[in-house]
Amino acid sequence: MIQRITTLVLSLFAVLPLVQAQDPRFSQYFASPWNLNPAMTGAFEGRWRVTANYRDQWSSFLAPVPFRTYAAAADVRFGVNRDDYFAVGLGLMHDEAGTSRFTQNKVQLGGAFLKQLSGGPRRADHFLSAGAQLGFGQNSLDWGRLWFSRQFDPSTETPDPTASNFEPNGNNNTGLYADFNAGLLWYVLFGNNGYCYAGGALHHINKPIISFTGDDAVRLYSRWSGHVGGLLPLTDQFGLVPGVQVMKQGPAFETDLGLNVRYSNNDRNEVALRLGAWGRVGNQLNSGLQMDAIAFVAMLELERWMLGISYDVTVSSLSLANNSRGAFELSLTYFHPAERRARIVCPRF
């Protein structure tokens, strides 16, 4: 076992200068609009919105250093004319992974323009939104938390962290890099509070340099994504909320798809509950696609608030190591109502 661990560590550091990192992601992607698509800035009913997301992954076998992701965003919209709106927002993300505390930090300022394409008493309301985000990021890791084969003491069969590793370690931080994202979103609202939407986004358009060793060839892969979904009313109280997200970043490909069942009291002070399951399918590089996990989701809507909780059950071969215990997520959204009822309305994605 010691030999296997040593070989793995050496292999990882042999390719470290060539590694091109990938983005953190949420199973409740629909509850993290800022990270899903810049065009979703301002796509809500109200004056301003605040979202917060937390993800804890693989604590079952990586404790006390599991993968953790924190994200928060706030956006506000302003009327341009009777039917159109402009929105601005600010988003933050902090992600940390593993023993080395590999960390990604991002700050982004975004804006979007929401245009009503059509609508009326007997016509469905169609809207189109175009958005972009510009920000900065920086990655870091703690070399002191890692050990190398030269620090392995065969007499005790344990690593000696006080011994020199004789490695030409890189910097603890990458340079501060600029990051640019853009996206489009279309949605339509129809009778009985139903809606459907489709959107697409391209992240890291400028492919920023993220090297710890000053190698300009080490860049963050651009990521493209597409997402569709909606609310299909069955009765006045019940509806189906399906959704699909497709992403590709460098060699990595992922699809998230699933369904929530929504119950609403259909009252003036609306209270709604969503329950559902979402599957995640990813590629194994050259080995084809596999089902990675199934996320079970519960969401509660209380007028201005929406709270979501989910748990990922691992169904891939990794389940042999973590006993199917994957990731835990929380999401919280607050919608502040407008001073007057706006003519433009938006679904709660």
SSE diagram, text form:
Blueprint lengths: L1 H14 L17 H4 L11 E10 L1 H4 L4 E13 L5 E13 L4 E19 L2 E18 L11 E2 L4 E2 L17 E13 L5 E9 L19 E11 L4 E12 L2 E13 L6 E13 L5 E14 L2 E10 L4 H4 L2 E12 L13
Antiparallel strand pairs: 1-2, 1-16, 2-3, 3-4, 4-5, 5-8, 6-7, 8-9, 9-10, 10-11, 11-12, 12-13, 13-14, 14-15, 15-16
- Give, in order, the helices and strands: HHEHEEEEEEEEEEEEEEHE
Could you give the distance between the termini? 47 Å
Architecture per CATH nomenclature, i.e. the level-2 architecture: Beta Barrel
> According to CATH, what is the topology?
Porin
Explained architecture:
This protein has one domain: monomeric porin ompg (Porin). The chain is globular and about 80 Å long. The chain is 7% helix and 53% strand. 31% of the residues are buried. With 349 residues, it is mainly β. The chain is built from four helices and 16 strands. The termini are far apart. Strand 13 and strand 14 form a beta hairpin.
Please supply descriptive tags for the structure shown above.
single chain, 349 residues, mainly beta, Porin, 14-stranded antiparallel beta barrel, two-stranded antiparallel ribbon, 16 strands, globular, disordered N terminus
Describe the structure concisely.
7% of the residues lie in helices and 53% in strands. The N terminus is likely disordered.
